[in-house]
């Protein structure tokens, strides 16, 4: 019996189905992705990376950074915070509204809250609860803000403000989202460590910056050379056993500068339609969480430098730990 | 060794070779598969966001994403600016200073910051005839066409609000409800207004 046509058709359909699912569908989904606008500010996003950072992509790729570092922060939920910014005129009505909105609050506490603004009234609630709270707090010209807050383990570690979306990679080729996290995620490293000197020192001697770092030193991206007339401005401030012999200096090569420029440009924090978040103008006073200790332990345990960046992150980290 | 392992096989009673036959799939299995398929379809419908590029994991549908968009306090001036620069700025200049023979200035113009009823009628129905702006008699040969008639009410409200709050103007915002009210009041009117007609309208 001749099974040829049957085998051919079966193979054809199997391959066609996988091509359809793995090539055609994603192409239709994000193949024509274009620049978009941030919400609500309407700023164009993303803009092309600056020239040196564009060269840095090639250095990142050549040194295999993507084998140990991912560039895709995740997010498990989006929640809302309600912030009271202005107590308005009718204090007693506001206090009874506060107690109604947040049942764990006593009247005395509510009074103290109303005197110390801005204050987070509700944290981590869903949109309908937040909306009704905002409605309930509309007494006597009191003003509230509703913040949209992405949450998840990666965000609690300070690896990003929101999840990564396809737009973040729009001008990158090749896209290197990475699959392993031997080192921390780099989706927003430029936001987390905005100091280029820190990055250069970290590339030269990772343990000098992060105590338990497992990253190999990338000293071939640097040059040890004789000091000509005076110390170059870009010489690394190395001390102790790392310091070069007297009369010499360690300067980054062009590759190192490009790589650091690329790392500086990694900041996936724009509020977009598909990744909404509120960018707070100023962090309000903390509600009740003793955030600092929780935040630092969280950061240290994930190989990130033990320096959280805003009160926001501290609060979130504390919340995650609970 | 061969105690109870040996069996005496009766001669001639040997069973036939087993054969594969066609048998119908049990009905319960079919029903189970159909129920699973139905559940999968419902799950897909509720969780996939229909493969939209705007729907990422914590969200399940476009509506849910839209629900979580941060809102800004007050009128949306950026939207108004975008509409202005696309539609109005050709004749009135992006800086609101107007262009000779094309459009009067809007910065500081009493027509813009004054009565909303007059202002809304101008883009909705057009304006034709000599007009006095900031104590200056001006003549625009081609008049103003009904540029705003085709705009969505939200966009028109945004652009009028932008005009009333940009370039140093400080007047109350215009809402889409006000525009709807004017549309209902005037009804279908093919010819543009004349400035004198608008001046006859009450201030409010």
Notes on the structure:
The complex is a heterodimer of chains A (322) and B (204). Chain A is 38% helix and 12% strand. By secondary structure, chain A is α+β, with helices and mostly antiparallel strands. In chain A, a hairpin with a 6-residue loop joins strand 1 (36-37) and strand 2 (44-45). In chain A, helix 3 packs across helix 4 and helix 8 crosses helix 10. The longest helix of chain A is centred in the N-terminal third of the chain and has 27 residues, at 4-30. Chain B is 42% helix and 3% strand. Chain B has a two-stranded antiparallel sheet. Chain B is mainly alpha-helical and 204 residues long. Chain B contains 8 helices and 2 strands; from the N terminus they run αααααββααα. Chain B is rod-shaped and about 125 Å long. The model of chain B has no long low-confidence stretch (mean pLDDT 82). Chain B starts with 26 loop residues before the first helix and ends in a 5-residue tail after the last helix. The A-B interface holds A 25, 28-30, 33, 39-42, 74-78, 80, 127, 146-148, 150, 152, 163, 165-166, 271, 273-278 and B 51-59, 65, 67-72, 76, 78-79, 82.
């Amino acid at each position: 019996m001749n099974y040829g046509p049957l085998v051919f058709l079966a193979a054809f359909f199997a391959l066609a189905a996988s091509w359809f699912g793995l090539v055609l569908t994603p192409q239709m989904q994000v193949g024509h992705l274009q620049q978009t606008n941030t919400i609500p500010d309407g700023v164009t996003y993303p803009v092309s990376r600056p020239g040196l950072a564009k060269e840095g992509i090639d250095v990142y790729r050549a040194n295999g950074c993507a084998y140990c570092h991912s560039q895709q922060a995740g997010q498990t939920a989006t929640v809302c915070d309600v912030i009271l910014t202005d107590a308005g005129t009718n204090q007693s009505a506001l206090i009874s509204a506060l107690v109604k909105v947040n049942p764990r609050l006593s009247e005395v506490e509510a009074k103290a809250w109303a005197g110390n603004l801005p204050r987070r009234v509700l944290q981590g609630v869903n949109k309908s609860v937040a909306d009704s709270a905002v409605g309930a707090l509309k007494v006597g010209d009191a003003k509230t803000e509703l913040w949209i807050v992405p949450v998840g383990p990666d965000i609690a570690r300070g690896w990003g403000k929101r999840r990564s979306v396809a737009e973040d990679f729009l001008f990158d080729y090749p896209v290197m989202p990475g699959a392993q996290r031997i080192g921390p995620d780099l989706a927003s490293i430029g936001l987390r460590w905005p100091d280029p000197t820190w990055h250069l020192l970290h590339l030269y001697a990772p343990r000098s910056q992060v105590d338990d770092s497992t990253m190999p030193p990338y000293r071939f991206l640097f040059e040890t050379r004789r000091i000509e007339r005076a110390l170059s401005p870009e010489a690394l401030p190395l001390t102790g056993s790392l310091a070069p012999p007297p009369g010499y200096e360690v300067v980054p090569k062009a590759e190192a500068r490009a790589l650091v420029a690329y790392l500086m440009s990694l900041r996936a924090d724009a509020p977009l339609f598909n990744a909404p978040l509120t960018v707070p103008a100023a962090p309000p006073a903390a509600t009740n969480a003793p955030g600092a200790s929780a935040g630092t332990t969280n950061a240290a345990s994930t190989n990130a430098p033990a320096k959280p960046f805003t009160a926001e992150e501290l609060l979130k980290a504390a919340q995650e730990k609970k | 060794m061969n105690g109870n392992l040996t069996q005496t096989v009766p001669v001639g009673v040997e069973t036939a070779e087993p054969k594969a036959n066609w048998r119908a799939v049990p009905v319960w299995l079919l029903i189970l598969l159909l129920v699973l398929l139905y559940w999968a379809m419902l799950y897909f419908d509720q969780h996939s966001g229909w493969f939209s590029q705007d729907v990422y994991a914590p969200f399940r549908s476009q509506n849910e994403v839209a629900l979580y968009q941060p809102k800004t306090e007050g009128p949306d001036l950026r939207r108004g600016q975008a509409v202005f620069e696309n539609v109005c700025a050709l004749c009135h200049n992006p800086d609101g200073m107007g262009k000779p023979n094309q459009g009067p200035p809007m910065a500081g113009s009493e027509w813009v910051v004054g009565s909303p009823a007059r202002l809304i009628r101008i883009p909705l129905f057009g304006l034709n005839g000599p007009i006095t702006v900031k104590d200056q008699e001006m003549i625009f040969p081609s008049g103003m066409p009904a540029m705003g008639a085709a705009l969505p009410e939200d966009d028109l409200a945004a652009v009028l609000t932008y005009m009333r709050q940009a370039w140093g103007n400080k007047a109350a915002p215009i809402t889409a409800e006000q525009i709807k009210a004017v549309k209902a009041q005037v009804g279908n009117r093919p010819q543009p207004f004349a400035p004198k007609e608008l001046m006859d309208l009450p201030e409010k």
